[in-house]
TrEMBL record:
This is Exodeoxyribonuclease 7 small subunit. InterPro entries: Exonuc_VII_S, Exonuc_VII_ssu_sf. The lineage of its organism: Bacteria, Pseudomonadati, Pseudomonadota, Alphaproteobacteria, Rhodobacterales. Belongs to the XseB family. It is an enzyme of class 3 (hydrolase). The gene is xseB. It comes from the Bacteria. It catalyses: Exonucleolytic cleavage in either 5'- to 3'- or 3'- to 5'-direction to yield nucleoside 5'-phosphates.
Length: 81
């Protein structure tokens, strides 16, 4: 069942694990309609959380810049992700 942890406080791994549980429950049809709606709503929040955490991680990815001799010269934040 759903965790008591607010979605906004979950790590990517926590949100993904719970999202997998929610999807499994909905696919198996093991919950009544009212509970299915609540699960679907929580699943949507979990999906959004996972997407945000991935976007945050992508923004932190850095590329190594090389100087004229092909030697590492530093790091540059990757843009456009």
């Amino acid at each position: 069942m759903s965790s008591d942890t607010p979605v906004e406080e979950m790590s990517f791994e926590q949100a993904m694990a719970e999202l997998e549980q929610v999807v499994g429950q909905l696919e198996r049809g093991e919950v009544p309609l009212d509970q299915s709606i609540a699960l679907y709503e929580r699943g949507a929040k979990l999906k959004a959380r996972c997407e945000k955490k991935l976007k945050d991680a992508e923004e932190k990815v850095a590329a190594i810049t090389l100087d004229a001799n092909g030697e590492p010269a530093g790091l540059k934040t990757v843009e456009g992700l």
